[in-house]
Amino acid sequence: MITVPICISMAISFGCTRGKPAAQAPDTTRAQSISALYDRVETVFANAAYFKPRSENPRDRAEELPPLILQDLESAADGADAIRGFGVLAIDKLGNLNIDASQPTVYTAGGFVHLNGREYEQTLHIWWYAVSPRTSAAGTVWQGFRTTLGSDGFPIIWEVVSNSDSAAQIFVSESLEKACIAAFGEPLPGRRFSIERSLADQPRVVVSRVLADGPVPMGPWIYLRASDRAVSTIICRCMPSQVEDISQTAYYEMAPLSTLAELQMDAGAREVIPAGPDELNHGVPDMADPSWLEDALRLPPEF
């Protein structure tokens, strides 16, 4: 059991309104960062730990689309002391946050977003890590992804969400990218996909990859780097694997994000912990409002 002070002031709302951000000129450092996000999706893990959901009786849409998580182990020593495994959250008598990595847990939520005048269902999957006291960072790190579903129930957009990211990493379905090509033509200069806005308009947003359309709606594979647990790539379960060997397999539990509010009420925690997705503090603040996708991407008219 790892105990750390609570340091979660949080904000993902499903339904705010926002104005369009002012355009920014890309700088060299940011361009290099975006290039790295493009390139790392091709990384193949030599060895990984595999986390899969234990539940076989989903209670809602989020549990119907659970991720299969692969944690890189090849260079695990680089980050083993910095960030521990993800686990279940609890509050002790002093109001401190406990993260028990012996019980891997993914917290879920659902909601809806309006894009181009239409309503789309979204799901959220996040998990928490404890940061070691031996590092300069304190408290916790949360990581996960938000999925937007098409009118047919198939996932079409996956957004990497975290309280530590400085750029927005997005993945889209092949069918959505094809619709963008039909509507807008080829990718803009410096971009790899038609759905991406210009670097001047959205210098902190990158669509890292286009995912094959699966035969049925399903959760994706999530590949996590060893050093910082950041997302290396997201792929469809129908796409070729990017891991050579899986040496460890474990189950994770799924729990509604709302149960964390119940913990605070039961234990009288000193600070607020998230009762829902509208209380998460994003590394990229614009992502707190799911409707930001209208500004972040070139969504086709028929979307």
Q: How many DSSP-defined strands?
A: 14
Give the biggest sheet.
11 strands, mixed
**What is the terminal-to-terminal distance?**
46 Å
Task: Assess the beta-strand content as a share of residues.
Answer: 25-35%
Radius of gyration: 19 Å
Q: What are the low-pLDDT stretches, counting only 5+ consecutive residues below 50?
A: 1-26, 78-82, 133-138
Shape estimate: globular
Helix content: 10-25%
In short:
This protein is α/β, with parallel strands linked by helices and about 300 residues long. Helices cover about 15% and strands about 30% of the residues. The protein has one domain.
Can you characterise this structure?
The protein is an alpha/beta fold and 303 residues long. The protein has one domain. Helix content is 13%, strand content 32%. It contains five helices and 14 strands. It has helices spanning 28-39, 61-64, 174-184, 259-267, 293-296; strands at 2-4, 48-53, 68-72, 88-91, 97-100, 105-115, 118-130, 140-149, 155-162, 168-173, 205-211, 221-224, 231-235, 246-256. Residues 1-26, 78-82 and 133-138 have low confidence and may be disordered.
